[in-house]
Amino acid sequence: MAAEWVCVQRQQDECRRYLDQFKVLDHPLKQSTITVLESRGTRSKVSTAANGISLSSNNSAVMTAATLSLDPLTIAFDGSDPLSQFAKQQSTSLGKDPLSRMAAEMENSATVPLSPVGSRNSIGKGKEPTNLLELDLIEPWAARRGAILNKYTTSEKLSIVTSFLTGGETIKPQTTMSEKVKYRLEQLDDFEEGSVRQMLDLSQQEYVVKIEQLNHELVLAWNQDQRVKALKIAIQCSKLLSDTSVIQFYPSKFVLITDILDIFGRLVYDRLRTKADYIHPGTREMTSLPENFTPDMVPESAKETCQNWFYKIASIRELLPRLYVEIAILRCYSFLTQDEFGLALRRLTKMIRGIGDPLVAIYARCYLCRVGMSLTLDRTYIGENLDDILTVYHTIFNGGIRSEIAHHRITLNGYISLYLPALDWILQGVAILTTDNQLDDILQRCKEKKNPALLLQSMMQSFRSDFIASRATHFVQILSSISVEGLTRGQLFRLLGSILSHTPPPTEQRPVVLASAMKTICSLGNVEEFMQCAEMWAQYTSQHFGLKEIDIFLGNVLQQMTPNRLYEQHYHELQVIVDKIVSNAQDVHGILALDNFLPLLDLFQKETIKLEVCKNVLTSYRNATACDNAIINDPIVTNALMYISRVLNDSANALTGEDERRQISGLICHFIRKVDFGRDFEQQLAFYVEARSVLSNLDSALSTLIHAVNRLATSTRRIVKGQHTQKTAAFVKACAAYCFITIPSIIDVRTRMELYLQAGQVALLNSCLQHADSCLEAALNLIPEMPRMVETDGKLQSTEGFIRTFVVNFLSTLVIVPDNPTQGVLYLLRLLLEVVPKYPFEPTSNVLSGIYLHVLDFLSVAAQEVYPYHIVNVISNDELYGSDPKFIAEVNELCCTVCDKLLQHLKALLETNALRAQSQLALDLFLKIITGADLSVDKMFTLTVNLWNLAVKNRSAIEPKQLQTVVAYTEHLAQITHVESQRQCLWMLLDKMKSRI
Question: Which of 213, 282, 356, 523 is least surrounded, with the fewest CB atoms within 10 Å of its CB?
Fold first, then answer.
């Protein structure tokens, strides 16, 4: 044995590392601030430390430190941040960013870029709105455009007739034109001779591509000054809107074609405005028209050009293209007369009466209203369009239309839905700035029509939600009694439920509305319609009613779904209902305790669906209770959540991903933490026992249960103030047994080791010594099972750091653990020294040597007469052995054994030429010896000197200040040590140390 370690008795402060102490005025990480003071021709900096002390600029050292504490951007901008620097530059035009300069130039000049027809114009402060869209009271068309294109699709083949795209079949004109003037007029109607082609069997995607090509051709022709060709393309595109051969695609076709017409109208308007430069009063220079120009500012040449455009369009033979193209350039009337918009809109409204197909006519009215809303505040023409729609509304259901529907092989319901986008837009325009009395008149007119379901549906979608909500009772009565041919009553009640969910009716109407609506919904006779309605009314019910009404609602759902296992066809709707009920309810605990809630969950027989539903329920419960201190002590609620947790636990298997497992575990752990039966600890422990039997597949859930039981045992000790009675002692032993039995079920070795250690500490706290020994021994026996590498967040990490941390924590606990009389002196420490080398350390790792150094610290404390800390009612080894010489001899023997292992490691480091690690280990062992060993023993003194020489020999491999700190610490020990022989040896050692530096 190379070392002859004898532990020395010492004061507790000798165990502490000696450090130089100095006063710190402020937190070292807090940045200094620099205030930039600017005066005429000078700039000075005044640094202010975090404690408010001003630092003079003469103190260069302080200023340098302050400067270095700032980030590079702050230094680059002379103490101010970049945004502040840019803000200062805004006072000059050169400092403005490109967009700001462009905006300034546009404000200074009179030229204002034109926005497309139908788009919203931004209104500056104080600017009066000039059209309905600027009032910001209507949903913009751009927001509806995408929804229409996505909804109205087709798989049928489409055709297109044009003269400006290659391919297709040539169509020869039926007649020839001989007169020059007549030919020039009718060339707007007819296509070029021999070039008209019809493209057949186009898919929807191909059709859209061809429309985009026409759009491109129109812009290209315009840019090449081929105005007639551009007009022809616009006419041909408008003619396509008369084709209803694939009727279910018509709304999407309308959107695509009117996009092209909008572009054409903008091109014409921009062209006229370019030609309308005028001489500003008081100057001789030609300038562009201002944004709010008047017709008297427009030159006669520009007016003549504008009139020519309208003459050309008026010469178009067919009604539909003449209408659409004139509507597209309707904005150009602003060049001619002041109040032409209203007259033109009413004139075009009357012209649309000539369109025989009601579907084509309503979309023409939609385009007219859309363009008109972007031009004027006048709403008269919108009302006239609605009057015309109501006048011919009955034709939608006549025999000719029904024959056409049968020809197209679509249902009446599908045909009626084609009207909704156009009708919604028109009714939305009617509702702008309209009083409730006027809306009531419209409602009365609509409900008096035969088959008014389409009108009522569009009205509910377009009118203000508060108007609908305030008349919810009336609407329920109407929807329950009207004829719904072409639509279903379920669709109407679904829409009404959606509106009332966001805008509830007056309080006094709510019960009547719910009772009447559910009575009608339950009598629909169609389970699919019932579920669609219930899906919407679930939110309204859960938001505005108590548990009784919600339970009745769930009972109605169960009654409809249970017969013939109909629920298997409506899992999605049932899932939505459960989510809305749980997420919107005011009392989530009350929802879980309802009689019909768990039976509703039982309807989900498909495992994946049931898992998703239960997960959503627990998620909603966590969100509802995350920010409050509400606890669960109702057995019914507890059983409901336990049932849901069992479903989630049973879904976890070997194929479950880590993220999914982590998410499920988090939800269940939140539930476990919320269960609290107060002072009824036995019932609390019984709940944890039941939860353990249910949640056996999730490590996190088991860990949470063990922590909860440990907390329960600690709370018991706190209540009895450390003096256990026979009953409480038996209870804490039951808690310790619960932990000891549960921990082996956990898969992760690290978690098991930590929980064993924690359980042992809690058992020791409650004077359960046998349980503590068992837990600590079990924790040590897991060290050889610990793998070297584990995967954490997708990355492999070494477990050596965990082993070192665990051992340090274990040793700190072991200080106060009394030895088991049947196991021998320091049995647990000997077991630790036996199992630690079995862990597969890296060959170059210093973790094992670090552990041995910590063991020396432990043994040094174990040899003291009085330990630094104790637990009440637990007799530690200092009292148990009373510094018995045999016990001290055992401690010294273990110290020698550990020291020899460290010396062997030093030798191994020398063989591998690891000089830095060798010097550091020699220095660390040197410190342990002078702190805890008796230096009057010759072997130890010689070993200490040799260790110092070894550390100094390779001083370049360690920090220079570290050697100085060790010397100062040795001198400190020599001054405070009360053993004379130890003091003399320290002074002798100190002389040798200084001689080698």
Answer: 282
